[in-house]
């Protein structure tokens, strides 16, 4: 080693604050590209500063990346709370996939898959837009209490959801336990796939019609009592319903001559039907007999 090299002072690179701040921004940009990242570090100076920058920047990048993942999970949870969805809860992967594909072919756009009841419980919240739930009860236990508990919880929190359950164990009391938990339908493990599709289609169609009927009643702006009166008249559409029959069904009391409370409510119902249906659906008063709902419009 020459004397000139021995007497040469060590070169230390001191980065101003603004330069270091710019460097940190560049590091974050280049982090996903290892080659460019290392080349940039070599331009910063001494190895000790490079090590410190690597330590700080890696820690900050990991921290920010973790926050982004948390936000993504939060966004997915928020989407579940807004957009309607169906869920398949089945421990067997192949069966879970097959059922999910069947639900998608049935017209359900968003189908989530869960292997265990505990995972599905995170989706079943009060008022969640759950359209349908298809669950499989294990064959390895005398009674699948976890899955039955999930069914009961879903029925309580999301009463309008369609719930179908398949008993893989073909238990003698399997169907009774499934219905008691709150499911709409139950099948044995040896069912034909076409039967499952048919049952699902019928249940979904019924739920859709019920939802449409509820929406029409909301649009009419009826009071709870008016809804009950109209529902009773609708059950006997085209038939004369007496005031005494209305009083017994709606109020649980006897009607006495001169009591005109139903005339008032029916008058309001008539006006609201006319605003929405015109002459396609109307309530007509039959003198000294009662009321009759006439028309072919769906309600």
Task: Describe the protein in words.
This protein has 299 residues and is an alpha/beta fold. It folds into three domains: 65 residues; 133 residues, Rossmann fold (3-Layer(aba) Sandwich), CATH 3.40.50.2300; 75 residues, Winged helix-like DNA-binding domain superfamily/Winged helix DNA-binding domain (Arc Repressor Mutant, subunit A). The chain is 57% helix and 13% strand. The chain is built from twelve helices and seven strands. The strands form two sheets. The protein has a five-stranded parallel beta sheet with strand order 2-1-3-4-5, with helices on both faces. A two-stranded antiparallel ribbon has the order 6-7. Helix 8 links the parallel strand 4 and strand 5. The longest helix is centred in the first third of the chain and has 36 residues. The N and C termini lie far apart (100 Å). The N terminus is likely disordered. GO terms for molecular function: DNA binding. This is Response regulator transcription factor.
